[in-house]
Amino acid sequence: MKNNYWCPPCILRQTLDLVRSSTEDEVSAEVAVKNVFRAMSEMDFSRDTAAIKRDMNHLAKQSSGNGESYERFKTRLYRYALEVFPKLVTHVETAGDPLEAALKVAASIDIFAIGTNHHCDLQLLKTKLADTDRRRLVGDPEEFYRQATAARSILYLLDGAGQVFSDRLLITQLPREKITVAVGADEIGSATLEEARIAGLDRMVEVIERGADVPGAPVDECGQSFRRRFDQADLVIAKGQGNYETLGEVDKKIYFLMTADCPIIAEEIGCQPGELALYSRN
Protein backbone atom coordinates (compact mmCIF):
# COMPACT_ATOMS: atom_id res chain seq x y z
CA MET A 1 0.00 0.00 0.00
CA LYS A 2 1.47 3.33 -1.08
CA ASN A 3 1.47 6.44 1.06
CA ASN A 4 -0.68 9.49 0.59
CA TYR A 5 -1.31 12.59 2.67
CA TRP A 6 -3.43 10.65 5.20
CA CYS A 7 -0.52 8.40 6.20
CA PRO A 8 2.06 10.62 8.00
CA PRO A 9 -0.23 11.69 10.91
CA CYS A 10 -1.20 8.07 11.63
CA ILE A 11 2.36 6.77 11.35
CA LEU A 12 3.54 9.58 13.63
CA ARG A 13 0.84 8.85 16.23
CA GLN A 14 1.66 5.14 16.26
CA THR A 15 5.38 5.82 16.55
CA LEU A 16 4.93 8.29 19.42
CA ASP A 17 2.78 5.72 21.22
CA LEU A 18 5.73 3.34 20.96
CA VAL A 19 8.07 5.98 22.35
CA ARG A 20 5.76 6.47 25.30
CA SER A 21 5.70 2.74 26.05
CA SER A 22 9.44 2.28 25.42
CA THR A 23 10.83 4.73 27.97
CA GLU A 24 9.82 6.44 31.20
CA ASP A 25 12.73 8.89 30.98
CA GLU A 26 11.59 12.31 29.77
CA VAL A 27 14.98 13.23 28.30
CA SER A 28 15.15 10.02 26.27
CA ALA A 29 11.55 10.50 25.15
CA GLU A 30 12.29 14.07 24.02
CA VAL A 31 15.31 12.90 21.99
CA ALA A 32 13.24 10.14 20.42
CA VAL A 33 10.37 12.48 19.54
CA LYS A 34 12.72 14.99 17.91
CA ASN A 35 14.42 12.24 15.91
CA VAL A 36 11.06 10.87 14.76
CA PHE A 37 9.81 14.33 13.72
CA ARG A 38 13.03 14.95 11.79
CA ALA A 39 12.79 11.62 10.00
CA MET A 40 9.11 12.13 9.22
CA SER A 41 9.82 15.53 7.67
CA GLU A 42 12.17 13.81 5.20
CA MET A 43 9.85 10.87 4.47
CA ASP A 44 9.85 9.57 0.90
CA PHE A 45 6.20 9.23 -0.12
CA SER A 46 7.13 6.78 -2.88
CA ARG A 47 7.97 4.10 -0.31
CA ASP A 48 5.30 1.73 0.96
CA THR A 49 3.68 2.24 4.35
CA ALA A 50 5.06 -0.92 5.97
CA ALA A 51 8.69 -0.01 5.26
CA ILE A 52 8.24 3.49 6.70
CA LYS A 53 6.55 2.09 9.82
CA ARG A 54 9.45 -0.33 10.30
CA ASP A 55 12.02 2.46 10.06
CA MET A 56 10.07 4.70 12.44
CA ASN A 57 9.63 1.83 14.93
CA HIS A 58 13.35 1.06 14.88
CA LEU A 59 14.20 4.74 15.27
CA ALA A 60 11.83 5.09 18.22
CA LYS A 61 13.37 2.08 19.95
CA GLN A 62 16.96 3.17 19.32
CA SER A 63 16.33 6.75 20.37
CA SER A 64 14.49 5.95 23.57
CA GLY A 65 17.03 3.60 25.13
CA ASN A 66 17.22 -0.17 25.48
CA GLY A 67 13.51 -0.89 25.45
CA GLU A 68 13.31 -2.14 29.05
CA SER A 69 10.27 0.05 29.70
CA TYR A 70 8.55 -1.47 26.70
CA GLU A 71 9.29 -4.97 27.98
CA ARG A 72 7.74 -4.02 31.32
CA PHE A 73 4.73 -2.64 29.45
CA LYS A 74 4.34 -5.93 27.57
CA THR A 75 4.57 -7.86 30.84
CA ARG A 76 1.71 -5.79 32.27
CA LEU A 77 -0.27 -6.23 29.05
CA TYR A 78 0.00 -10.01 29.14
CA ARG A 79 -0.76 -10.18 32.84
CA TYR A 80 -3.94 -8.25 32.09
CA ALA A 81 -4.77 -10.43 29.06
CA LEU A 82 -4.36 -13.63 31.06
CA GLU A 83 -6.70 -12.25 33.69
CA VAL A 84 -9.30 -11.18 31.15
CA PHE A 85 -9.18 -14.24 28.90
CA PRO A 86 -11.51 -16.59 30.87
CA LYS A 87 -14.18 -13.89 30.85
CA LEU A 88 -13.85 -13.53 27.08
CA VAL A 89 -14.22 -17.29 26.67
CA THR A 90 -17.49 -17.16 28.59
CA HIS A 91 -18.64 -14.17 26.54
CA VAL A 92 -18.08 -16.02 23.25
CA GLU A 93 -19.40 -19.42 24.36
CA THR A 94 -22.66 -17.96 25.70
CA ALA A 95 -23.30 -15.69 22.70
CA GLY A 96 -26.21 -16.35 20.37
CA ASP A 97 -23.70 -16.62 17.50
CA PRO A 98 -20.30 -17.63 18.95
CA LEU A 99 -18.49 -17.27 15.61
CA GLU A 100 -19.67 -13.70 15.05
CA ALA A 101 -18.91 -12.85 18.69
CA ALA A 102 -15.37 -14.23 18.30
CA LEU A 103 -14.90 -12.34 15.03
CA LYS A 104 -15.95 -9.07 16.66
CA VAL A 105 -13.67 -9.56 19.66
CA ALA A 106 -10.76 -10.49 17.38
CA ALA A 107 -11.40 -7.47 15.13
CA SER A 108 -11.66 -5.01 18.02
CA ILE A 109 -8.53 -3.09 19.05
CA ASP A 110 -10.03 -1.95 22.36
CA ILE A 111 -10.54 -5.15 24.35
CA PHE A 112 -6.91 -5.47 25.45
CA ALA A 113 -6.21 -1.77 25.97
CA ILE A 114 -5.01 -1.53 29.57
CA GLY A 115 -5.67 1.31 31.95
CA THR A 116 -3.45 2.92 34.54
CA ASN A 117 -4.03 0.22 37.16
CA HIS A 118 -2.97 -2.58 34.74
CA HIS A 119 -5.40 -5.15 36.14
CA CYS A 120 -8.80 -6.40 35.12
CA ASP A 121 -11.59 -3.92 35.76
CA LEU A 122 -14.62 -6.21 35.41
CA GLN A 123 -17.10 -3.40 34.88
CA LEU A 124 -14.90 -1.77 32.23
CA LEU A 125 -14.49 -5.12 30.47
CA LYS A 126 -18.27 -5.64 30.47
CA THR A 127 -18.70 -2.18 28.98
CA LYS A 128 -16.13 -2.91 26.25
CA LEU A 129 -17.76 -6.23 25.38
CA ALA A 130 -21.23 -4.72 25.30
CA ASP A 131 -19.96 -2.00 22.98
CA THR A 132 -18.28 -4.59 20.75
CA ASP A 133 -21.52 -6.60 20.60
CA ARG A 134 -23.47 -3.55 19.47
CA ARG A 135 -21.05 -2.69 16.70
CA ARG A 136 -21.71 -3.82 13.16
CA LEU A 137 -19.35 -6.33 11.60
CA VAL A 138 -19.10 -5.48 7.92
CA GLY A 139 -18.78 -8.77 6.06
CA ASP A 140 -20.30 -12.23 5.79
CA PRO A 141 -19.34 -14.56 8.68
CA GLU A 142 -21.31 -17.48 7.22
CA GLU A 143 -19.45 -17.34 3.90
CA PHE A 144 -16.18 -16.94 5.80
CA TYR A 145 -16.92 -20.12 7.77
CA ARG A 146 -17.86 -22.00 4.60
CA GLN A 147 -14.54 -21.00 3.05
CA ALA A 148 -12.67 -22.07 6.19
CA THR A 149 -14.33 -25.49 6.34
CA ALA A 150 -13.75 -26.06 2.61
CA ALA A 151 -10.06 -25.12 2.77
CA ARG A 152 -7.46 -27.85 3.14
CA SER A 153 -4.94 -25.51 4.81
CA ILE A 154 -5.33 -22.12 6.49
CA LEU A 155 -2.59 -19.61 7.29
CA TYR A 156 -3.54 -17.22 10.11
CA LEU A 157 -1.45 -14.02 10.31
CA LEU A 158 -1.31 -12.42 13.75
CA ASP A 159 -1.24 -8.68 14.32
CA GLY A 160 -0.40 -6.83 17.52
CA ALA A 161 0.91 -7.86 20.93
CA GLY A 162 -1.94 -8.64 23.33
CA GLN A 163 -4.38 -9.53 20.57
CA VAL A 164 -3.09 -13.12 20.41
CA PHE A 165 -5.65 -13.99 23.08
CA SER A 166 -8.53 -12.80 20.92
CA ASP A 167 -7.00 -14.72 18.01
CA ARG A 168 -7.06 -17.84 20.16
CA LEU A 169 -10.78 -17.26 20.76
CA LEU A 170 -11.45 -17.11 17.04
CA ILE A 171 -9.29 -20.14 16.25
CA THR A 172 -11.41 -22.25 18.64
CA GLN A 173 -14.41 -21.49 16.39
CA LEU A 174 -12.60 -22.70 13.25
CA PRO A 175 -11.27 -26.09 12.04
CA ARG A 176 -8.01 -25.59 13.88
CA GLU A 177 -6.43 -28.84 12.65
CA LYS A 178 -6.03 -27.01 9.31
CA ILE A 179 -4.54 -23.82 10.77
CA THR A 180 -0.95 -22.63 10.91
CA VAL A 181 -0.34 -19.36 12.76
CA ALA A 182 2.37 -16.93 11.61
CA VAL A 183 3.90 -14.48 14.07
CA GLY A 184 6.08 -11.42 13.57
CA ALA A 185 9.72 -10.73 14.26
CA ASP A 186 10.88 -8.75 17.26
CA GLU A 187 9.84 -5.34 15.99
CA ILE A 188 7.95 -3.27 18.56
CA GLY A 189 4.23 -3.86 18.61
CA SER A 190 3.95 -7.17 16.77
CA ALA A 191 2.88 -10.47 18.26
CA THR A 192 5.94 -12.72 18.48
CA LEU A 193 6.61 -16.42 18.99
CA GLU A 194 7.08 -15.87 22.73
CA GLU A 195 3.72 -14.13 22.98
CA ALA A 196 1.97 -16.86 21.01
CA ARG A 197 3.32 -19.33 23.55
CA ILE A 198 2.11 -17.20 26.46
CA ALA A 199 -1.38 -17.28 24.94
CA GLY A 200 -1.18 -21.06 24.48
CA LEU A 201 -1.46 -20.98 20.69
CA ASP A 202 1.47 -23.37 20.27
CA ARG A 203 -0.54 -26.03 22.12
CA MET A 204 -3.43 -25.65 19.66
CA VAL A 205 -1.84 -25.16 16.24
CA GLU A 206 1.53 -25.03 14.52
CA VAL A 207 3.21 -21.62 14.95
CA ILE A 208 5.79 -20.29 12.49
CA GLU A 209 7.65 -17.00 12.12
CA ARG A 210 7.32 -14.65 9.17
CA GLY A 211 11.05 -14.00 9.09
CA ALA A 212 10.74 -10.27 8.40
CA ASP A 213 10.95 -7.21 10.67
CA VAL A 214 8.31 -5.24 8.75
CA PRO A 215 4.79 -4.64 10.06
CA GLY A 216 2.32 -6.75 8.13
CA ALA A 217 3.46 -9.52 5.81
CA PRO A 218 5.19 -8.31 2.64
CA VAL A 219 5.68 -11.77 1.16
CA ASP A 220 8.83 -10.95 -0.84
CA GLU A 221 10.59 -9.80 2.36
CA CYS A 222 9.54 -12.77 4.49
CA GLY A 223 11.48 -15.96 5.09
CA GLN A 224 11.47 -18.89 2.67
CA SER A 225 9.49 -21.12 5.04
CA PHE A 226 6.76 -18.51 5.40
CA ARG A 227 6.62 -17.89 1.66
CA ARG A 228 6.17 -21.60 1.04
CA ARG A 229 3.34 -21.83 3.58
CA PHE A 230 1.71 -18.72 2.14
CA ASP A 231 1.78 -20.15 -1.39
CA GLN A 232 0.42 -23.51 -0.25
CA ALA A 233 -2.43 -22.16 1.90
CA ASP A 234 -5.93 -22.39 0.41
CA LEU A 235 -7.09 -19.59 2.68
CA VAL A 236 -5.28 -16.80 4.54
CA ILE A 237 -6.78 -14.99 7.53
CA ALA A 238 -4.94 -11.71 8.06
CA LYS A 239 -5.48 -9.68 11.22
CA GLY A 240 -5.14 -5.90 11.37
CA GLN A 241 -4.55 -3.00 9.03
CA GLY A 242 -0.83 -3.71 8.73
CA ASN A 243 -1.54 -6.99 6.99
CA TYR A 244 -4.03 -5.29 4.68
CA GLU A 245 -1.45 -2.63 3.83
CA THR A 246 0.99 -5.30 2.64
CA LEU A 247 -1.40 -7.93 1.23
CA GLY A 248 -4.44 -5.98 0.08
CA GLU A 249 -3.50 -6.21 -3.58
CA VAL A 250 -2.23 -9.81 -3.55
CA ASP A 251 -4.19 -12.15 -5.82
CA LYS A 252 -5.07 -14.85 -3.29
CA LYS A 253 -8.03 -15.87 -1.14
CA ILE A 254 -7.44 -13.69 1.92
CA TYR A 255 -9.89 -12.61 4.60
CA PHE A 256 -8.84 -9.41 6.36
CA LEU A 257 -10.19 -8.94 9.88
CA MET A 258 -9.69 -5.50 11.41
CA THR A 259 -10.93 -2.28 12.88
CA ALA A 260 -10.80 -0.06 9.79
CA ASP A 261 -9.42 3.07 11.44
CA CYS A 262 -7.68 4.29 8.29
CA PRO A 263 -10.14 6.28 6.10
CA ILE A 264 -8.34 5.16 2.95
CA ILE A 265 -8.64 1.48 3.88
CA ALA A 266 -12.25 1.96 5.01
CA GLU A 267 -13.16 3.45 1.64
CA GLU A 268 -11.39 0.66 -0.25
CA ILE A 269 -13.20 -2.14 1.60
CA GLY A 270 -16.59 -0.43 1.70
CA CYS A 271 -17.13 0.53 5.33
CA GLN A 272 -17.01 3.59 7.54
CA PRO A 273 -13.84 4.55 9.45
CA GLY A 274 -13.75 2.81 12.81
CA GLU A 275 -16.06 -0.06 11.83
CA LEU A 276 -15.22 -3.72 12.38
CA ALA A 277 -14.62 -5.43 9.05
CA LEU A 278 -14.29 -8.94 7.65
CA TYR A 279 -13.25 -8.35 4.07
CA SER A 280 -12.17 -10.48 1.14
CA ARG A 281 -11.33 -9.01 -2.27
CA ASN A 282 -11.62 -12.32 -4.14
Features of this protein?
Rossmann fold, alpha/beta, 282 residues, 7-stranded mixed β-sheet, single chain
Fold blueprint:
Blueprint: H1 7-22, H2 26-41, H3 49-63, H4 68-93, H5 98-107, H6 122-134, E1 137-138, H7 141-150, E2 154-157, H8 164-171, E3 179-183, H9 193-198, E4 206-209, H10 224-232, E5 235-239, H11 240-247, E6 254-259, H12 263-269, E7 276-279
Parallel strand pairs: 1-7, 2-3, 2-5, 3-4, 5-6
Antiparallel strand pairs: 6-7
Explain how this protein is built:
- This protein is of the alpha/beta class.
- The protein has three domains: 7-66; 75-134; 137-279, Uncharacterised protein PF01937, DUF89, domain 3 (Rossmann fold).
- The protein is built from twelve helices and seven strands.
- The protein has a seven-stranded mixed beta sheet, with helices on both faces.
- The chain is globular and about 50 Å long.
- Mean pLDDT is 84; it is low at 114-118.
Number of strands: 7
Largest sheet strand order? 1-7-6-5-2-3-4
Order of helices and strands: HHHHHHEHEHEHEHEHEHE
Helix content: 40-55%
Give start-end ranges of low-pLDDT stretches: 114-118
CATH homology group of the largest domain: Uncharacterised protein PF01937, DUF89, domain 3
> What class do helices, strands and sheet pairing give?
alpha/beta
Question: Kindly, what is the distance between the CA atoms of the first and last residues, rounded to a whole number of angstroms?
Answer: 17 Å
Kindly provide the name of the CATH class of the largest domain. Alpha Beta
Q: Give a quick account of the main beta sheet: strands, pairing sense, barrel closure.
A: 7 strands, mixed
**Beta-sheet strand percentage?**
5-15%
Arithmetic mean of pLDDT: 84
CATH architecture assignment name of the largest domain = 3-Layer(aba) Sandwich
Q: Compute the gyration radius: what is it?
A: 18 Å
- The global form is globular
CATH topology of the largest domain: Rossmann fold
Tally the helices: what do you get?
Answer: 12
The total number of structural domains is 3
